[in-house]
Design brief:
Order of helices and strands: HHHHH
Strand content: under 5%
Structural class: mainly alpha
Distance between the termini: 53 Å
Largest sheet: none
Shape: elongated
Number of domains: 1
Length: 140
């Protein structure tokens, strides 16, 4: 992932746009893995996201859906016609599923951080209470 972030940063996008590129990239990779197409090189996904961003697309959701569409086009027969501007139901479902999973992971990370913080606070309180008794008796 650090290579991809480095690639996004070298494209002269500002930090906020790089974050949106990273979000779109993460969701595309997750979607591709979920639908059994995880064999696509991450560099290709990153290049597609960058290409779309250079065309003026700045919303991470749109970047994700259009990158999935481009990837999906390559994998299906050329005789199948598709609309180019509106995401299909399945493309939106892929995006929604990846977004939900990413949100769940962030919530779990936040809960773990809260738990670690509570443990740290308890240790500090214990140390402070212990130091009151070791420095000449209880203090008021």
């Amino acid at each position: 992932m650090t290579e991809v972030v480095r690639l996004f940063r070298t494209t002269a996008f500002d930090d906020a746009m790089v974050q949106r590129l990273c979000d779109a990239y993460d969701r595309v990779i997750r979607c591709l893995q979920d639908i059994g197409q995880g064999d696509i090189a991450p560099e290709i996904v990153a290049q597609r996201v960058i290409s779309l961003a250079k065309q003026g697309i700045s919303d991470s959701r749109t970047l994700c859906v259009l990158t999935l569409r481009a990837t999906n086009k390559e994998r299906r027969p050329a005789t199948v016609a598709r609309r180019d501007t509106v995401p299909t139901d399945i493309e939106f479902i892929w995006y929604a599923q990846a977004s939900a999973r990413q949100s769940t992971e962030k919530i779990l990370d936040s809960l773990a951080l809260v738990k670690d913080s509570q443990a740290l606070i308890a240790r500090i309180e214990h140390q402070l209470n212990g130091s009151r008794f070791t420095t000449g008796g209880p203090q008021k």
